[in-house]
Amino acid sequence: MTVSNYNTTASSNTAINGVNISEGMSPSDVNNAIRQELKDVRDVWNDKEWFLLGSGSSTVTYTRASSTSVTINADVSTTYHVGRRIKITGTNTGTIYGKIATSSYSSPNTTVAFTFDSGTINASDSTVSVFVGSTYVGPSIPVIHDTSLGTSQILPPSQGAVKTYVDAQVTAQDLDFEGDSGSSNVDLDSQSLDIAGGSGITTTASGQTLTVAGDDATTSAKGVASFSSDNFAVSSGAVTIKDGGVVNAELANSSVNYGGVSLSLGGSDTTPAFNLVDATGYTASALTGTIGNSQVATGIDSAKIADGSVSNTEFQYINSLSSNAQTQLSGKLTASNNLSDIGTASTARTNLGLGTISTQASSNVAVTGGSITGIGSPSNNSDVAIKSYVDDAVAGLRTRIIAECATTANVNLTNGLEAGDTIDGVTLVAGDRVLVKDQSDATENGLYLAVSSGASSRDPEHDTIAELSGGMVVVNQGSTNDNKIFLCTTDSDGSIGSTNITYVVVTPSNTGTVTSVGLTQSGTEFTIGSTPVTSSGNITINVNRISATKIGSGTTVSDTEYGYLANVSSDIQTQIDAKSGAGFAVAMAIAL
After folding, report:
1. C-alpha dihedral (299, 301, 304, 305), degrees to nearest 10
2. Of these four, 233, 347, 356, 434, which has the most CB atoms within 10 Å of its CB?
3. What is the Cα–Cα distance from 548 to 559, expressed in whole angstroms?
4. How many other CB atoms sit within 10 Å of the CB of residue 102?
5. Distance CA 83, CA 504 (A)
């Protein structure tokens, strides 16, 4: 029935069962829309009991949630209320009837659960149609259309019609109820509501009257009870015993026995009330019997004795005392032993077996958990040395430092001093001390410790300028620096990170044979280039050949011309003159 798909907002209706009815529709669509609308209206009126309401203003989708429930994409909990009869149709479900068991809205859906007369919603139907029963109760005389009369007449209904109508209405109704816990309902055409009594309550039905009565209370059953105003007070349902509401005569037991102590409780007892917490002012004659060890609980807390200032632990100190405690203490305190009557230190030492200070020096003295103070700096070989004196002495030894190796060039301190790296031919092991002396940034120089991986850090014993300044570092290994000693020449008043740190080699000394020295020309002399050698020793200069241009000042003699001097045995000019005379004579003879 597509009327349920129509919207109560006129402008929202743009089609009737698939026929376009928007502005500018074709004439044929006008005819088809009117015809379809008439069909829809007729279909609705053919079934006046069941209605496919949608949301009441537009269409909705009934989506199967389970075999007994659906979800509806709108808030329809008011229309689809608990107890309303329903009819569900589906392709595979067929037609089944029942009533709404629960209905609740949680945006954006209303979840409706059903109790079916028989059958369930088939799992193959993802959507179904949910019709609700008509809530029309009608006038006292329904309108009946009788075609035999030719027109509609208002006629009295038959008994059968009335019964059918009433049965249909009753069948569609039930009575819902709730208790303090739980809820239920009664089907009015097939079930009766039973109001059951409970403990102390009886229910009776007679005619049209239901009586709920409270039973009288007994010693074995709960019920309604009254209280004597002489003994009890009742206010807002609370019952209390009045002061003096119970007298001795009403007590079943005429005496009370507590740990061997008997107290009479009869009406004729003249013994005053006895307070076990504070019995001050009462004599033993007021009690029957005696209180012995068997009546006293084990371990009375010390706070309950006297004023409570003595603790349980302190009470235990009197254990095993054989006589008066003060007498025993006085006997133990011999004046000469505890020095209480000694006026001089020498007498005290004698009583304690310490002797004099001079004789005591030959014995061992142990001091545990404390310290000896007030001693001055030692002046004799046998004097005790104080810490500040030892620290000063050790400070003088710190100038001699052992390093495993030393750098020969700049190193990357972030990863260049890791275990396995090589410095001057030495493979580092984590913990090795390395002298870093050749950094491009001289403020980074100093003593470092090799690490397993990552950046190295300064040796914690040499991480200030004051600790580095004047320090002599002995290098254990290395291709270049083996057994060399370096001196830190940086002033001690600098600071790490801003002061350049420099090292110079102090050993080996400049003695022995120097095998290679650079030479440069200076005028007509040869001088040793670079740093002059100032120490004693032999310097060997190996000159293989001196070019002719290096001899004399502004000479034009070539290397070839110098070669002509080969085999000259005496003064060159003398030999030339002698040779020239003999040659002239020979030449003249040939000419003649």
Report:
1. 70
2. 434
3. 5
4. 12
5. 107
Q: Quick one: 412 and 476 in the same domain?
A: yes
End-of-domain residue from the set 74, 101, 136: 136
Strand (E) or helix (H) holding 587:
helix 572-591
Question: 65 exposed, middle or buried (CB, 10 Å; 0-12, 13-18, 19+)?
Answer: middle
Q: Which residue has the higher pLDDT, 79 or 436?
A: 436
* Mean pLDDT over the full length of the chain: 75
28 and 116 together in one domain: no
Summarize pLDDT for 379-408 with one digit per residue, the tens.
Answer: 887 788 887 777 666 655 556 799 999 999
Residue-by-residue DSSP string for 21-51: -STT--HHHHHHHHHHHHHHHHHHHH-SSEE
90 Cβ contact list (under 8 Å, min separation 6): 121, 122, 125, 127, 128, 129
472 inside domain: yes
Of the candidate ranges 58-67, 160-169, 382-391, 472-481, the one whose mean pLDDT is the lowest: 160-169
How many alpha carbons lie under 13 Å from residue 588 in its C-beta half-sphere?
5
pTM for the full model?
Answer: 0.29
Higher-confidence residue of 110 and 347: namely 110
Looking at the structure, tell me whether residues 19 and 107 fall in a common domain. no
Radius of gyration of the chain (CA): 64
Residue 514 bridge partners (DSSP): 539
Give the pair of three-digit tokens for residue 148: 């035999």
3-state secondary structure 215-260: CECCCCCCCECCCCCCCEEEECCEEEECCCCCCHHHCCCCEEEECC
32 lies in a domain? Answer: yes
Tokens 């005790």 found at: 384
Give me the residue label for tokens 């209320």. Answer: 81
CA distance 459 to 468: 10
User: CATH no. for residue 67?
Assistant: 2.40.10
Alpha carbon 247 to chain centroid, angstroms: 66
SS (H, E, C) 202-217: EEEEECCEEEEEECEC
Cα–chain center distance at 217: 61
Which residues neighbour 21 within 8 Å (Cβ) at sequence distance 6 or greater?
Answer: 13, 14, 15, 29, 30, 33
Of the residues 472, 507, 542, which one is the last residue of a structural domain?
507
